[in-house]
From TrEMBL:
InterPro entries: Acyl_Trfase/lysoPLipase, PNPLA_dom. The keyword Lipid metabolism applies. This is PNPLA domain-containing protein. Residues 1-23 are annotated as: Disordered. Residues 36-168 form the PNPLA domain. It comes from Oidiodendron maius (strain Zn). The lineage of its organism: Eukaryota, Fungi, Dikarya, Ascomycota, Pezizomycotina. The keyword Lipid metabolism applies. A motif (GXSXG) lies at residues 82-86. Keywords: Lipid metabolism. GO terms for molecular function: calcium-independent phospholipase A2 activity. A motif (GXGXXG) lies at residues 40-45. Residues 11-23 have a biased composition (Polar residues). GO terms for biological process: arachidonate metabolic process; glycerolipid metabolic process. GO terms for cellular component: membrane.
Amino acid sequence: MATASGVGVESETTTGASQSQINNDRTLDNTGYCLLSLDGGGVRGLSTLYILQGIMSRLNYTREEAGLGPKKPCEIFDLIGGTSTGGLIAIMLGRLEMTVEECIVAYTRMMKYIFEKKANHSLISMLGGIKPRFSSMALEHAISQVLEDRGVPTTAKFRDDTSPRCKV
């Protein structure tokens, strides 16, 4: 598995496209599951997206050379998962089926809402409890905006009876 700044891609190779990457319409590698693992890290999630953008650009360039159309991450990876902001990115790429470029735009806009103003200057309350660093209301607003932009109702269930291309 190759890992770079929060992006883990499980396949036989991430430096060059193999014949299975070009011919297979579903995954990078047809010998098993193709997993994309995204680390958390707040605003550093943007660097994760730029690394993934490079991987997808190389893959799609090779596909284009072979006369095939471009693919989105949800069409390449069987499983996409992440922690913290990596989980938000996983939902955007996997469940909302965004391209990496669409995700970068949405994530940049989300960062302005979520990470711009800290909810608390102190992480410890007067009674010794731990307080959140950022506002959960800002996070909720940012996620609602992404859903609205994609035409997904904020009341939509993310687990339904359909079989998505990619599991998140």
